[in-house]
Amino acid sequence: MYKLDQKNRRIVFELDRNSRQSINELASITKLSRDVVSYRMKQLEKAGIIQKYIAVIDYGRFSYQFIRLYVGLQNTTPEIEENIARFFVEEKHCQIVFRSSGRHDLVAGFLVKSLAEYQQIYDRFLQQFRAHVAHRFISLFLSYHHFCRNYLVDKKQQDHSIIITGNQDTFVYDEKDLQLLNIIKENARITLLDLAHELKMTPAGVKYKLRSLEKQKVILGYKILLDFSQLGYQYFKIDLELEDLSIIPALAQYILQHPNIIYREITLGGSDFEFDGEFKNDLEFYQFMDELKKLFPQKIRHYSFYQALKIYKYSYFPEEFLNSKTKKPQKH
Predict the structure, then answer these.
(1) Distance between CA atoms of residues 308 and 98, nearest Å
(2) Rounded to the nearest 10 degrees, how much is the dihedral formed by the CA atoms of 179, 188, 25, 5?
């Protein structure tokens, strides 16, 4: 387990809040020199704590739907399980793949234009691995809420803002938009000069295009892919079935203010209320659930959860879309 001191915790928090912040901005916030901030970031990257700097791109603006598939496996070996994971990792429509504990063994998320497109992928999956599928179900994401990892810092330093993906208001784009998004999606700290070189544009032109994508809510923010396990945390996905649906607004406000909750999902075909958190251990998680049941007595019918064990793939933008030769013109 990697021990973070207070300065490193603040650096990781600030990068999770906005991973495109400059070294100067981070130095000002942390009261460290530029060289020290840069050195600490490199050490965190080298240790694998910070795995990627990612741009949160709203797939909904490009008329994509996000579908999550939950799979329970049977009659497998470690090699078979890795082959199944590899099938999803190599699938161009699949953006998120991870192993999990609990009822489900594997979870995969897909960005598709239609349910028929998803069904084609699913049929290919079953053709290869049907004998190893014990159970499965899907949910369609209507919106996905991203919170800051406030458990890393003191209460006075916390940020309770929300990034929400799933806006279906279509964005009209050009080829340079796609190229920029493709570069920045997993390289959010790339400089304007490097972006300009890659796009064969001027730095001023790149800066304008980037700000335009942010202003139009195509790029919603910049975060990090964090190896929470090295920090001694476990990832929990929680599903609540409610006795009284009227408590949903209060539940939403409660999890927004709770430092350990990092996502909320609003789904079709899922549970009444879904969210994700990172906790130090099982005891801390169960204490959280006990507190939740005390706050909403006899309002929560029951809950279930699973833990993410290994992340194979994590991205916010469809690979097949970026490789498409069909582009729509953008008027500036």
Answers:
(1) 7
(2) 180
CA distances from 223 to 149, 191, 211, 238, 260 (A): 10, 16, 17, 22, 16
Q: For residue 299, what are the contacts with CB-CB under 8 A and spacing of at least 6?
A: 242, 243, 244, 247
DSSP state letter for 277: E
- Classify 25 as helix, strand or coil: helix
Residue with tokens 């991870």: 98
The span from the CA of 185 to the CA of 181, in Å, is 6
Q: Are 43 and 5 in contact (CB under 8 A)?
A: no
**Token representation of residue 148:** 């800051």
Q: Render 225-272 in DSSP notation, one character per residue.
A: EE-GGGGT-EEEEEEEEES-GGGHHHHHHHHHH-TTEEEEEEEESS-S
CB 141 within 8 A of CB 263: no
Specify the range with the lowest mean pLDDT, choosing from 125-129, 248-252, 320-324, 327-331: 327-331
pLDDT at 49: 95
Provide the pairing of β-strand 273-279 with 163-165: unpaired
Q: Which residue intervals of the chain are DSSP H helices?
A: 6-17, 23-30, 34-46, 78-90, 115-129, 175-184, 192-199, 203-215, 248-257, 282-295, 319-322
Q: Which residue has the tokens 């916390």?
A: 158
Please check the confidence at residue 46 and state whether its pLDDT lies above 60.
yes
In angstroms, the CA 217 to CA 165 distance is: 9
* pTM, rounded to two decimals: 0.89
CA distances from 313 to 57, 86, 164, 166, 180 (A): 16, 10, 21, 20, 21
